[in-house]
Fold:
Amino acid sequence: MVLRLPLPSPFFTSERVMTSIDTLEAFLAELDRIERRAADLVPAASTATDVEAARIALVGRESGALTALAESLGSLPREDRREAGQRFNAVRVAIEAALEAAWAGLSSARTTAVADPTMPSRPFWRGARHPVSIVLDEIEGIFRELGFTIALGPEAEHEWYNFGALNFPADHPAMDLHDTLYLGEGTLLRTHTSPVQVRTLQAYPPPVRVLAPGNVYRRDFFDATHAPAFAQLEGLAVDEDISFADLKATLTWFARRFYGQGTRTRFGPSYFPFTEPSAQMEVEVDLGDGRGARWLEILGCGLVHPAVLEAAGLDSTRWSGWAFGMGPARLAMSRYGINDIRLLYDSDVRFLEQFDAC
Ligand code: DAH
Structure:
């Protein structure tokens, strides 16, 4: 035998008025009942859930008591509809205003609670300086003692500043290492900070000593030792009678300030179109990885090529200079024993916040 249970009818679960209202008296009596219901419900609503429940019961679009009553307006005798409508509207406006006021009361209560001075404060999270920024600040501090100032140039650079003015012959293979995004109209994302050398020499008459930090871009894989966007730091000194001895002395002094007094340095031959002669400097450092001290190349450098001085409008028979370019990320890695450059550019806060002690 199948036992059939009566299904609850949706009509009896709602607020709908089931008795038909077809006289003005019945209409006004129901309106009165709703008004009294609102006077009970709304002032008693002390939480957002209560206020919302009252709103649904009274004026909710699906099953609100007023909504249901509005439907019976059409069943009233024609001559009573006007009065019924006006009374109805007055009650609806009053109920909506009461609901509105109940909402406002809730939010001001909440503001008062948050302003309570005895509440415990939220946990305070402060950021940390990025390891590359820490190292850059330190390097800049060391060079500032020697009279260097900071110069900045654009990241979207003219091809001429990035290559031509730096003595890269058109289609020279050295440019293969500098593949980048070309932005149109002779501009590209700069592949190095060296263009700032020329911009500085055009803007300021020598003697100049500047450091140019900034981001550079290359078509490179993102692996443990390469990043397609990375920080570089350029150095340039131009004066009368600058020689390779100035370069060696200054960079060695820097290395000892940065890595420690006894640090050994060595210079080996290299090639850059914008320096002649060109060199690379290595420092002997212990990276703390248990493999002991070893030679680490930290920068490229050289005497500024006369063609670069001329491109900047200087007389290369009078002025001479030396320059270097280094990757602060590499210095940060050697300083902190970081073995993967991606850690520096992934922005994982758990990693980054370990370095800034202040
Ligand atoms: N611009 C070079 C590069 O990105 C680095 C460099 C080497 C800069 C030698 C210099 C320099 O100023 O003298 O590979």
Residues 17 and 68 are 7 Å apart (CA to CA). Residues 1-17 have pLDDT under 50 and may be disordered. The longest helix spans residues 78-114.
